[in-house]
Amino acid sequence: MRYVKLAGGEFCPAIGLGTAGLLEDNCEQAVRWALDIGYRLIDTAWAYKNQSSIGRALRKSSIPRSEIFISTKIWRDNLNYDGVIEQCGQILNQLQVDYVDLLLTHWPSDAHIRARHEPTNITPLEETLSAFNEVYRQGKVRHLGVSNYDQDLLHQAQTLSKVPISVNQVHFHLPDSICTENVSTSLLDTCQKSNVAVMAYCPLGSGWCPGKGSLLQSPILAGIANQQGKTSAQIALKWAMNQGAIIIPKSGSEVHLRQNIDILDFEFTTEQMQLLDSL
Ligand SMILES: NC(=O)c1ccc[n+]([C@@H]2O[C@H](COP(=O)([O-])OP(=O)(O)OC[C@H]3O[C@@H](n4cnc5c(N)ncnc54)[C@H](OP(=O)(O)O)[C@@H]3O)[C@@H](O)[C@H]2O)c1
Predict the structure, then answer these.
(1) 115 pLDDT band (50/70/90 cuts)?
(2) Nearest-angstrom CA–CA distance, 181 and 202
(3) Which residue's CA is the closest to the ligand 1 atom numbered 23?
(4) Cα–Cα distance, 114 to 125 (Å, whole number)
(5) Whose CA is nearest to atom 30 of ligand 1?
(6) pLDDT computed for residue 119 by the predictor
(7) Nearest CA to ligand 1 atom 48
(8) For residue 82, how far is its CA from the centre of ligand 1 (angstroms)?
(9) Which domains does the chain show, CATH number per domain?
(10) What is the pTM of this model?
(11) Exactly one of 39, 48, 136, 201 is catalytic; which is it?
(12) Is 99 a catalytic site residue?
């Protein structure tokens, strides 16, 4: 496994399992396969409604809790102080663990309101982060992070939080012509320069991605995959990991789970890098 160093000096596996859309027995099975295959990072969220299933998989595994990195998220309606404290407690209960390794704000509340034009509850970032710092102080959370933050919001969060913001989880994959939500490599640069690891969601440009699989249809990817004896998905994941991102592809298929972690045994040639950059 490759690792990414977080603010504070600890390490996070560079490849993890995303679990959005995995429910009940399918989720438990996928997490059990993933742990057996060698995954040590599991990404979930209160909103995914699968933390109890993940908890069951963790309990049935013989891998010590200390070797597994669990990342989860507080939903945007619960970003007020009491809401964060309460939902963090629910998360620990559902997962049946004493602590999680990373707690993220799933979405910034004001950005969501701008996007949807609906008068929802706006919580000042300061209040949210004060609660995040409190659950950290209580030992319920080992690292704090955010998700879907642009440069400005990230900077505000870093200024307001006493505990470092270790991770920004964002929509990041090789560009394709359809997906406009993909973040630019300049956000990645900003994060890395300020010691914030980028956790790339939709790294296959699939799942919840508006492009929905168009990236994996790219003839450029297919050509490189053919040269490397890999699949297009493995090429897309390797590219994202090579940018320094932690990648969390979701899969409920044992075959795909094996493929997605099997990307450490090859490197791109200069010509292949140029082709990928051209995307
Ligand atoms: N913070 C946020 O706001 C946010 C938003 C979205 C997602 N996320 C997180 O990021 C994770 C990943 O994002 P995502 O699930 O939207 O998209 P993704 O990981 O880019 O794509 C998942 C899709 O790709 C397929 N797939 C997986 N491995 C494959 C392979 N080797 N070959 C071909 N197809 C493959 C999966 O199908 P199979 O199951 O059949 O393999 C699934 O349909 C989520 O599960 C979640 O944990 C976070």
Answers:
(1) low
(2) 10
(3) 207
(4) 15
(5) 256
(6) 53
(7) 201
(8) 31
(9) 3-278 (3.20.20.100)
(10) 0.95
(11) 48
(12) no
